Amino acid sequence: MVVIIGTACISPCAMVAKSQAELEKIVLGSRHLGVHGLGYNDKSLVELSQKLDSSDIPSLIPLVNTANLRVGAQFALASQCEAAIQPVQEAAASEKLSALDAEDIMDLIAGSSVCAPDVQDKAREVRIEIETASNERQALKEKEQQARAADDARVQKNAFKMLDPEQRKTLTRAEREEVFRRSIKAAGLENPQTPTQKAMVERMYRTMVLDIQTSSPNR
Does the pTM exceed 0.85? Predict the structure, then answer.
């Protein structure tokens, strides 16, 4: 039988989130000596579940990105069982938390005796969702990178054509403007400030886009 000693709340007790210093102290203090030195185990999950509550979850998520607190913060979040599942999934979706870290937290929840069996099952399901979403985001990023690389190669090819008067004639005005914008960016003249810079941009536009060749730099 568990006896709870304290003052009863007439209305629901409000949970107050702990400071970062308090959280770090609790997380680091939950380590136990094992064969590999101080580390985290099932006993850590039990202790963390007793010392933390759901109001601490938003502050615990950033701690996963801190090298010396990463594993401990994972255990701390897992100790909150169901309350941590959705926030961790959302953090992974917004890339505030890596998918691998989020998956590790779901694995901890799924294997924790602190969490109810139905919560363990939910954690396993969400782990799959996190992994699937991560793979889809990665595939999209790779597709976008390939598209940018292909576009860069196309503009670079047109830039070489600009060097030959005959090949330049085969380019549309839109293609010449692409080369012009790329050249302006490379020269650091996207926002010309001085009269000299503005004049240079104007000459480049007339030469590259309008195909008006000038013999004098002041023309």
Answer: no
